[in-house]
Amino acid sequence: MTKELEIEFKNLLTQEEYIKLLDSFGYNPTDAHTQINHYFDTADFKLRGQKSALRIRQKGEAYECTLKVPAENGNYEITDTLDQQQAEDILEKRNFAAEEVADALKEMGVPPENLDILGSLATHRIEFPYRNGLLVLDHSEYHGMEDFELEYEVEDFNEGKQKFQDLLTEYNIPSRKTDKKIARFMKASKKD
Fold this sequence. Notes:
By secondary structure, the chain is an alpha+beta fold. It has a single domain (about 1-190), classed as Hypothetical Protein Pfu-838710-001, CATH 2.40.320. Helix content is about 30%, strand content about 45%. The protein is built from six helices and eight strands. Strands 1-5-4-3-2-6-7-8 form an eight-stranded antiparallel barrel, surrounded by five helices. The longest helix has 14 residues, at about 155-170. The mean pLDDT is about 95. This is Adenylate cyclase. Pfam families: CYTH.
């Protein structure tokens, strides 16, 4: 189990901006690795009501269950590593094997047995070090839609915010209000 503070800045991109950034940093779409996020909440959206999110992420043969809860400048992430069987047990509502996440959910008044899977989102991700942080270029697909996103993960909020704004300015990318992936996923699911 890990618990860490996640500080990240996000900006939606057009496909053209995404390709331009890939080219500028020497990457192309085939360099991306794919990860699948499976999102959960209760029928009455108790997690969303607490501005929290729960997912199982699959990267190749690796699985992790992460609960994100709001913090002053970002989110706290509580993550349990899972094997394939444990992930399948959670996805099929047989056994919630992510013990630390389960404990945190119970503290929030959300019994794990009340969780339902909301659906899945596939992200094709390229990430690399950039100015004391991690720059992430994502192409996500969900509910027959796709979007492109730039993320910058940092240790220091103020320094990271300035570097992110500088990057957007350098590449002539307008700053756009960017919801979290789960929020975009949920908006798209309402359109289905």
